[in-house]
User: What shape does this take?
Amino acid sequence: MTDAAPEAQLTGWSPAPFTDAGVTHDVYEKGTGPGVVLLPEIPGITPQVVALGEHLVSQGFTVAMPSLFGEPGEPASPGRAAKVVARLCVATEFHAFATNTRRPIANYLRALARDLDARTPGPGVGIIGMCFTGGFALAAAVDSAVIAPVISQPAVPFPIGKERRRDPGVAAAELETVARRAARSRLCVLGLRFSEDRGCHRDRFAALRDRLGDAFEVIELDSAPGNDDGFSRNAHSVLTGELRERPGHSAMAARDRVVGFLRERLTAGGDRTEHEARD
Assistant: This one.
């Protein structure tokens, strides 16, 4: 038990470049079992993100972490975060401010998911996006290889103004495909956020619930004043920065549910139908 968020180093992780359509990023991989793509949060693959990956490995998954930005293994700091955000705001592969748009990075992540699916057991793979990459996990679920998408505090497009607060982070056509998959193959999306988080506004989850209905499972942690876990109103990172490994802690319970969600869907007999797999 500790009063700090779990951290780990990249010891034992195997990096290798993965390229699709001329885009290359190093991908750090470790573990055996069903595949899970774990996307970094700002400013990159920090020790806290690695700790989440290590936990998933310990639970029996093969984890692939693409280094989309930042320096892998470096701890988070305000300076590093500011430097990365400045670059991400103008990067066309991410479109941090655009609404109802296809983000080029999603094509790369779908290819990575298909590659991992081909090399790991089970009916498909999971993907976890957090903060800046939260919505990218939803966009990746357009591909039938992805059968367990988890979106934790999705913050893109940056929620400046009412329209961006409600934008789901994917184009309308992409969301329509995810909704169609949910109706056809019982695909489910797991979403996590803090109740007072303005970086991932409640309106975004409301818009997703309007479109996905019961196929959108939501875990909302209480961060209102006086909450039992002592979260501040600025609490944001459910699975990393705010997590404490102690019994009864709501963020640890949320992580447990993520593991359960992945296990339910990635073991034999998961939710990708035979017809969808052929597609």
The beta strands are 14-20, 23-30, 35-38, 62-66, 125-130, 146-152, 189-194, 216-221.
